[in-house]
Amino acid sequence: MIDPANKLLREQGSGIPIGLWVPPPNRELTEDRYKEVKEAGFTFVLGLSEYDGTTAFIRKALDAAHANGLLYLVRDPRLTELADDELSLVEPYVAEFAGHPAYAGHLFIDEPDMSLFPKLRALKAAYGKAAPHGLAYVNLFPTYASDRQRGGDHEQYVSGFLEQFEPAVLSYDHYPFLTPKPGRTHTITQDYYTNLRIVSEAARARNIPFWLFIQTLAFNRSNRDPLEAEIRWQVYTSLAYGAKGIQYFTYWTPDDGGETFGDAMIDRAGGKTRHYGEVQRINRDISLIGGVLAQLEPFGVLAHGSISPPLEGALKSFAPIGRIEGDAAVIGCFRDREGQPYALVVNESFTQPGSVRIGLDDSAQAAAVWEDGQKTALRLDQGEFALHLDPGEGKLIAFGV
Questions:
Q1: What pLDDT was estimated at residue 160?
Q2: In this predicted structure, what is the pLDDT of residue 5?
Q3: Domain with residues 7-293, CATH architecture
């Protein structure tokens, strides 16, 4: 169950937490740089390389986050380097930050393999005593990682993590947009929806939220630079599956090393790229419906038309949706605490606008849509209403009697 005392999970009660990976580097760690983060629509920052043998930059990042109303997850590599007989050091390491008003938790590790789960569980137990209201954060591999990387197949990997670590939030990454090359028949991962389904079903079974990362840049010659509609499509399809937190990979462009990177939202020289404005617009749209979405319980998705990549495990029906016509769509199905139905209708295409007509069954006689944060009644024509959707766009619908 969610610990409501944790700051980031409390935030989820009033909206969708929006985070970033790769914050401004230490040489650019200023309040003004974190103001840019805030102005792009982010609500929290995941630390990365602030620890440089001292904790001075971590404290500076916490101060810069707090000055701009942001929350911050500390990444302190000393924690995961502790041996089993050194876990008593967790408390003094964590205590230095846990009382800070911007502190939301610790990022333990990114993409661990299954052999690390017992150690992470012990670390979490020690951490819980030191920071009972902090988030012990771990991010998991995607479905396209190898069994060797994970230490088992993907469903075993996710279920093993849930059973051993018992996280408050289930987070993972999956970067779907691939670079065209000879012999490759597709430029998007074919297991994108499979990953969403596995994680969303696992999170629902545990009654915890799931978060995921959104691709914003090209990297390693394997993944291409996404367009704005492709970033939007990732966000809205994820929300349709019930994601309660959105995170972006990356904000600042990382330096090349073992991996190579194209420009992210901020380039290496500190300038804003086109991705900054793109993500800023998308984050604004999320914030306008996030307060409603955060309160809804997901039940799965309906699939209409030809969906590519393949989508399996879709719902057969969801009242009061009686029929669907028009262009291909992925439709997230939800209910609020009173049992009232909602739908997030997403254009399956990230290249073309779409139109969808939805007919109601006898269980509802009215529908409303959120436009620019305002709930507006839809005009019904013989029990049907029409939606126009930009490429990758989603629209939230409420049904009533």
A1: 98
A2: 52
A3: Alpha-Beta Barrel (3.20)
pLDDT of residue 369: 98
Return the structure tokens found at 369. Answer: 């849509």
Rounded to the nearest 5°, which phi and psi values hold at 284?
Answer: -60, -45
User: The sheet that has 341-347: what strands, in order across it?
Assistant: 297-304, 329-335, 341-347, 394-400, 366-371, 374-377
Q: DSSP secondary-structure letter at 15? A: S
- Pick from 283, 374, 236, 257: which is nearest to 15 by CA? 283
Q: What is the DSSP track for 113-141?
A: -GGGHHHHHHHHHHHHHH-TTSEEEEEE-
* Dihedral sign (CA 156, 206, 318, 176): negative
| C-alpha distances out from residue 352 to 9, 64, 299, 355, Å | 36, 41, 28, 10
What pLDDT is attached to residue 7?
A: 84
Q: Tokens standing for 321?
A: 């949706």
Distance (Å) of CA 136 to CA 23, 59, 249 = 19, 19, 20
Q: Specify the pLDDT at position 9.
A: 84
pLDDT at 65: 98
Judge whether 368 and 376 are in contact, CB under 8 Å: yes
Q: What are the 10-residue block averages of pLDDT along the chain, 401 residues in total?
A: 63 84 98 98 97 98 98 97 96 96 97 98 97 96 98 96 98 97 88 98 97 98 97 98 98 96 98 98 97 96 96 96 97 97 98 97 94 94 96 97 62
CA pair distance 370, 37, nearest whole angstrom = 26
Beta-sheet strand order (sheet of 354-360): 321-326, 354-360, 384-389
CATH of domain 297-400: 2.60.40.1180
Amino acid 277 reads G
- Residue 293 and residue 243 in contact, taking contact as beta carbons nearer than 8 Å: no
Residue 2: what pLDDT?
41
Give me the torsion for CA of 295, 301, 306, 310, rounded to 10°: 110
Sequence spans of domains, the chain: 7-293, 297-400
- Residue 232: exposure state from Cβ atoms within 10 A (0-12, 13-18, ≥19): buried
Long-range contacts of 373-381 (CB under 8 A, 24+ apart): 373/288, 373/289
